[in-house]
Design goal:
Blueprint lengths: L2 E5 L2 E3 L5 E8 L7 E7 L6 E6 L5 E3 L7 E6 L4 E6 L8 E9 L2 E4 L3 E5 L2
Length: 115
C-alpha cells in the first residue's frame, strides 16, 4: 500500500507565500501522476493542480499564475509552491497519487490565510 505524507502547512498572511510538500513511499513514484486538492469547510474537495509522470502540469483557474506544482522523482516528493495567497485559499490541502487503478491519498495539511 502506498503512503503519502503532506507537510508544510500553516498560517500565512494574505499576499504571503507557502510551500507544501508530499512525500511518497511504497510506490514507484516516477510512474504516478500526482495532484494537489483542497477542501474548505462546508465545501467539496476540489482539484488545485496536478502533474503527470512526464511533468505536464495543469492548474485550476483560481490558482493559475499564483501556484506552481513540481515533482522531484529522486526524492519521491511533490511540491506546491503557493504565492500571493488569499483568504479564500484557506483549506486542508491533500496530495493524491494515481497510476492506472491504483490511487492513494494523504492525510492533508491545513493552510490558513489570515491577518
Amino acid at each position: 500500500q502506498g503512503q503519502l505524507v503532506e507537510s508544510g502547512g500553516g498560517l500565512v498572511q494574505p499576499g504571503g507565500s507557502l510551500r507544501v510538500s508530499c512525500a511518497a513511499s511504497r510506490i514507484r513514484f516516477s510512474n504516478y501522476a500526482m495532484g494537489w486538492y483542497r477542501q474548505a469547510p462546508g465545501k467539496q474537495r476540489e482539484l488545485v493542480a496536478d502533474i503527470t509522470s512526464g511533468g505536464t502540469t495543469n492548474y485550476a483557474d483560481p490558482v493559475k499564475g499564483r501556484f506552481t506544482i513540481s515533482r522531484d522523482n529522486a526524492k519521491n516528493t511533490v511540491y506546491l509552491q503557493m504565492s500571493s495567497l488569499k483568504p479564500e485559499d484557506t483549506a486542508v490541502y491533500y496530495c493524491k497519487a494515481k497510476f492506472v487503478q491504483f490511487e492513494y491519498w494523504g492525510q492533508g495539511t491545513q493552510v490558513t490565510v489570515s491577518s
